[in-house]
Write a structure and sequence with these properties.
heterodimer, A: about 475 residues, mainly alpha, about 75% helix, B: about 240 residues, Cytochrome Bc1 Complex, Chain D, domain 2, 11 helices, elongated
């Protein structure tokens, strides 16, 4: 039982063929869309960071207002890059794990087009000044219902094969099922309640819940689900402990939704709720440790894969960062830390480590693994470019994180000491410069990756994949 | 149960989310449910801020064109539009509206924020903020003159050389005077905290221009002042 459910469902000789199951074209389309939006979001972040150095490139243009492009940066990452890359991963993994195709291929294509329209409309709306004052949910309010319908369609499309699947349910699918339910509920709650039904401080509590649930109940379960799928396949060995997988999933499911208010500590939200949110946040760190232990013991005796398999390197670097970011979280949500670091760049560094260093890395690793397969190439065009991509992105993210961490402490203590406000700006400038430079390294790395992907595609034996996708067995492929 | 579809769907998916929703959302919602939420006209009728009247006197032609006269209705309109600009330009991503009871914030900004201050429509969704690149603005009312804000929105470094705030030329007419959106944003920012009894003495001492702007005692001004009183106040000479 344990062994069976700890591995993807066994393949029968008479089982369905891959091209009947997997809509490879959708995987590729979503992946390309993810790359395009990642490029836009990164450039938006770079532009915005130049404002902090008093050298914004287009200061006189209303549609290039730096504040608006900050929202394009964050929303582009969340809804353009992460969501598209997750959909690519779902299209690849769910039919393989369930041995069932998605509900409807036409629906898949419709979702693809509709989602790109939603992201583009969001970016356009933000740039034209129609933002909603909800962090990570700045999507103009007229787009919110459309995006919600899109999320429901995604849930239907992927829950259909999962609910029809037979036999024990693999860990990945636990995470996916709950993620589909949560994402719809979280999006509806966060975007509609504070806008139409709840005002004031209570809406702040809901806003905090939304920010954190978006990370914890949409991004995190999809990310871990994909890790539970890809890591055993590439390492060709099962996850070490099924029991720890259970602890990790149910611990996350219980504690993660209970942490939202930790975003507004020392706010007028009742203190007993704030203290409760702090305790659940620390509890999460314990749960996270079990998951990390599970994955690192799985890697035991296969440590060479970190060197030989680029996807594994991306995945496990992301896991180290995940542990760091969760450990940081357990400290930074305590009251003594909050006194200093709240409202500072410390939090910005934390957000970058989570979004780029963890989930970005996992999805980039997934792209590195899948992309040549999708375009029918035998491997990447340039291994050197891939290596540069990894090191530039990894070092850029690490430096940016550490830089903003220290910047936050400097700012926090200057504020507490009642130094003139301008002094906290002057003291921050060197850190902001390092932030821009490290961000530039990340951007150069990504563009090398995009170029590499383009060349891989162009030089692939079949210039574009056939509608049915490359003929490939359902059997796990090697890295 | 722990590995079945229905267990995961119902317990983890729906159940745990519902639990968190009750604890983290319904509970604070219920706690503050009894507090009325003020509408924008109600906020305006709490008292037109003198800075709004000052805009009318400083830019008479343009003000008349945009807002006609400083009345409750036009003040409400300015607050609403100013709030819209504040959200559209993502001001709240770099300026908080939330004074914490720690880290000497009450000394720097003024009184600690309380829940009732957020019970109004202009806090939908609430503007606690997320990062403080620039100062907290919840006690900004009357702290600086309208002239200062005009210069600052046009070119922040002209008044604060180390400022990293963007320039907002689209809030101004071609000749450098604030347009409708510019006046509305200045009104909104100058209004933030004007409901406090301490206004404009947030830091325990009056700004240098306070006496010239308002002859009455500060405590008498809060939540008071029908428009005639304000309009009929002593001539306003802004000293910086």
């Amino acid at each position: 039982m344990t062994a069976a459910s700890a591995m993807p469902a066994p393949i029968h000789e008479s089982g369905p063929r891959t091209d009947e199951l997997v809509d490879t074209r959708m995987v590729l389309w979503h992946m390309v869309a993810a790359m395009v939006f990642l490029a836009i979001a990164l450039l938006a972040g770079f532009f915005y960071s130049m404002q902090f150095l008093q050298h914004y490139f287009l200061p006189k243009w209303e549609i290039f207002s730096p504040g608006r492009w900050r929202m394009v940066h964050t929303n582009g990452v969340a809804y353009g890059f992460l969501a598209n890359a997750f959909l690519a991963g779902l299209h690849w993994a769910v039919p393989r794990l369930t041995l069932r195709p998605v509900y409807s291929r036409r629906l898949s294509a419709f979702i693809f087009l509709a989602w790109q329209a939603v992201v583009l409309a969001t970016a356009g709306g933000l740039v034209l000044g129609q933002a909603q004052a909800l962090e990570w949910g700045e999507t103009p309010i007229w787009i919110d219902p459309i995006a919600l319908v899109g999320l429901i369609l995604v849930a239907v499309n992927f829950l259909a094969p999962i609910l029809r699947a037979e036999g024990p349910l693999y860990v990945t699918l636990w995470y996916f099922i709950s993620a589909f339910v949560w994402t719809v509920l979280v999006y509806a709650m966060g975007n509609f309640l504070p806008q139409y039904f709840v005002g004031g401080t209570a809406a702040g509590a809901i806003g905090g819940l939304f920010i954190h649930d978006l990370v914890g109940l949409f991004v995190t379960p999809l990310g871990w689900g994909l890790m539970y799928y890809f890591v055993p396949i590439i390492l060709r060995k099962p996850i070490w402990s099924h029991g720890l997988s259970l602890v990790g999933f149910w611990g996350l499911a219980f504690f993660y939704p209970l942490t939202g208010i930790h975003h507004f500590l020392y706010s007028p939200i009742p203190m007993f709720l704030q203290h409760g949110a702090v305790i659940t946040t620390i509890a999460i760190e314990l749960v996270v440790t079990t998951v990390i232990v599970n994955f690192f013991v799985t890697l035991a005796n296969r440590g060479d894969a970190l060197r030989t398999s680029l996807p594994i390197r991306w995945f496990y670097t992301g896991m180290v960062f995940y542990f760091v970011t969760c450990l940081q979280c357990a400290f930074q949500t305590t009251m003594p830390f909050q006194r200093i670091i709240h409202f500072t760049d410390w939090v910005v560094g934390h957000a970058h480590l989570v979004m780029m260093g963890v989930f970005g890395f996992w999805l980039l690793g997934m792209m590195v693994y899948l992309f040549p397969r999708l375009v029918g190439a035998s491997g990447w065009y340039s291994a050197t470019a891939n290596s540069w991509h990894y090191w530039l992105t990894m070092l850029g993210t690490l430096v940016m994180f550490l830089d903003l961490l220290v910047a936050g402490l400097v700012q926090g203590y200057l504020w507490k000491e009642l130094a003139p406000w301008e002094q906290s700006l002057i003291a921050s400038v060197p850190f902001w410069l390092v932030r821009t430079v490290s961000g530039t390294a990340i951007i150069i790395g990504q563009f090398m990756f995009f170029w590499n992907a383009w060349m891989t595609w162009r030089t692939a034996p079949s210039a574009s994949p056939s509608p049915a996708g490359p003929s490939m067995s359902v059997r796990p492929a090697t890295a | 149960m722990f590995e079945s579809k229905s267990g995961i769907f119902l317990i983890a998916g729906l159940g745990f989310f519902a639990l968190s929703f009750v604890v983290m959302a319904v509970l604070p919602w219920a706690i503050y449910a009894g507090q009325p939420e003020l509408t924008i006209p109600q906020l305006a009728e709490n008292g037109i801020i003198p800075e709004f009247v000052d805009l009318a006197e400083r830019y008479p032609d343009r003000f008349t064109q945009h807002f006609n006269k400083p009345t409750y209705a036009s003040f409400a309109e300015a607050l609403k539009l100013g709030h819209k600009v504040y959200v559209a330009e993502a001001c709240w991503h770099c300026h908080s509206q939330f004074v914490r009871p720690v880290s000497n914030e009450n000394l720097r900004w003024g009184p600690v924020s309380n829940a009732l201050e957020y019970q109004n429509v202009l806090q939908r969704p609430v503007l606690f903020g997320t990062r403080r690149v620039g100062p907290d603005l919840s006690r900004e009312a009357g702290r600086r003159s309208n002239d200062w804000h005009v210069a600052h929105f046009q070119k922040p470094t002209s008044v604060v050389p180390s400022s990293v705030m963007p320039e907002y030329p689209w809030l101004f007419d071609g000749d450098g005077y604030p347009n409708k959106r510019g006046m509305a944003l200045i009104t909104y920012v100058q209004w933030l905290g004007s409901w406090r009894p301490e206004y404009p003495y947030f830091e325990g001492e009056a700004p240098p221009w306070a006496d010239s702007l308002r002859p009455a005692a500060p405590s008498g001004m809060a939540n008071a002042g029908p428009v005639a009183d304000v309009v009929g106040a002593a001539p306003k000479e802004v000293v910086r």
